[in-house]
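Team,

Forwarding the record for the chain on the shared tracking sheet. I've put the sequence and predicted structure together so nobody has to dig through attachments.
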Amino acid sequence: VQLQASGGGLVQTGGSLKLSCAASGSIFSINVMGWYRQSPGNERDVVALITRDGSISYADSVKGRSTISRHSAKNTMTLQLNSLKPEDTAVYYCHAVVDGLNYWGEGTQVTVSS
C-alpha cells in the first residue's frame, strides 16, 4: 500500500491550500485517513482525521479553518486549509489505517509567509 500526498507549497498569510492524498495497492478496507504535521523541533501532531463512517475530528489549532473530506470509492482524501498562518508551516503527512495496518505517505511541505 502506498500513500501519495500532494498540494503543498508556499502561500502568504491568509491564503489557502488544498492537500490531497491517494492510497493505492492491495486495499480491502481503509478504517481511518488523516493528516499530521511536523515542524522543526516539534513532534508530529494530528491535524485532522476522518473515519470510514465519516466521523471527523480536527486539532484545535485548525478547527474552523480546515475541511477534511474523503472519497471512499477512490481511496482519496483532501484537506482544505484556509486562513493560513505562519504557525501552520510544517511538513504535512498523509496517514491511513489500511486493513488494520498503519501507513504513511511522504510529507509535503507547507510554508506560510508572513
